[in-house]
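Example S7 (structure tokens).
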């Protein structure tokens, strides 16, 4: 007779118990994995803005002045006066061939004309990986130039309030507040309702908002979140990397990070509020005039948002910013102290 020995095996209850433990471990690991992925994207985004900042600083070192934030230097023809400073610094961020193509194309179309190669040319340096890219149509950017706490005469300033402003060009010597206390560039990518299409802005807004920034926030925020129905622009912040006008490619240090943006009495360029924004929770990345990168808290002190934005005459006289630490970090010669941010 053959004698069969019972083989050891799992009971159904034991198997279910093991599966439950595995499920719990996976559940515990997934948030950590998302956190690591988010940290990696934040680091890459900071590296992008740092590299753009170094390109700006290398341009200043070579030419003796910073590029204008709007109006491409070394390029003439269609819409060159509205091109972003990103176009100007192309040779300093390994984009010399694209710069030469734009400069040498006598038949170059105006900005926002579909089907033109350079307008659709993707550059990973201009884009935050957390925002994603649909890979169709115009190539975006998720970084913009800082114009300080200026909200009036944005298109045609007479004096600089930040490192950048209209077609004016500052030099490092103009940054008397200190290069380590003055912002060059920052993020403008924003997620709304879990999507990266949250870069629209409000257009044709009333001039009374310039008298009290808090009034604009009250009209466009609901329970601490941006009311998307107010963002009625046809284009978007950073919607075309080569566009330099205020609605698309500039920011001022008035409203807190991740607040809505607005053009007063216009659509693409002009006066108004132009906010930094970030898809990274809690902070927004900026690069300073000394080349250092920092993550600015979304809770940064913005001073008195009921105070009217400064007039051109006040800016000529070097009036201090009413907008706290955030405003002070944007100005080049306000004399303010910005110890903590």
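Recovered sequence:
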């Amino acid at each position: 007779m053959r004698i069969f020995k019972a083989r050891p095996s799992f009971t159904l209850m034991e198997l279910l118990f093991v599966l439950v433990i595995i499920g719990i471990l996976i559940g515990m690991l997934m948030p950590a994995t998302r956190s690591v992925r988010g940290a990696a994207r934040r680091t890459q985004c900071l590296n992008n803005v740092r590299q753009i900042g170094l390109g700006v600083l290398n341009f200043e070192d070579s030419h003796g002045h910073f590029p204008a934030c709007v109006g491409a230097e070394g390029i003439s023809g269609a819409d060159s006066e509205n091109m972003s400073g990103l176009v100007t610094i192309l040779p300093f961020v390994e984009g010399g061939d694209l710069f030469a193509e734009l400069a040498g194309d006598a038949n170059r179309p105006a900005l926002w004309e579909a089907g033109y190669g350079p307008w659709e040319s993707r550059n990973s340096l201009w884009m935050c990986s957390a925002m994603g890219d649909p890979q169709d149509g115009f190539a975006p950017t998720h970084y913009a130039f800082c114009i300080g706490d200026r909200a009036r005469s944005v298109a045609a300033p007479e004096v600089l309030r930040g490192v950048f402003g209209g077609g004016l060009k500052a030099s490092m010597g103009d940054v008397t507040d200190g290069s380590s206390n003055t912002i060059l560039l920052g993020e403008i990518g924003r997620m709304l309702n879990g999507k990266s299409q949250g870069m629209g802005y409000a257009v044709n807004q009333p001039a009374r908002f310039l008298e009290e920034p808090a009034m604009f926030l009250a009209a466009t925020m609901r329970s601490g979140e941006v009311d998307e129905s107010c963002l009625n622009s046809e284009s978007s912040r950073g919607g075309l990397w080569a566009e330099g006008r205020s609605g698309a490619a500039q920011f001022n240090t008035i409203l807190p990070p991740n607040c809505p943006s607005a053009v007063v009495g216009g659509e693409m360029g002009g006066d108004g509020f132009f906010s930094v924004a970030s898809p990274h929770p809690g902070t927004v990345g900026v690069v300073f005039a000394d080349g250092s990168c920092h993550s600015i808290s979304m809770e940064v002190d913005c001073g008195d948002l009921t105070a009217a934005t400064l007039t051109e005459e006040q800016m000529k006289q070097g009036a201090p910013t009413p907008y706290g630490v955030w405003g002070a970090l944007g100005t080049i010669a306000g004399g303010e102290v910005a110890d903590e941010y």
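Notes on this example. The longest strand covers residues 283-288.
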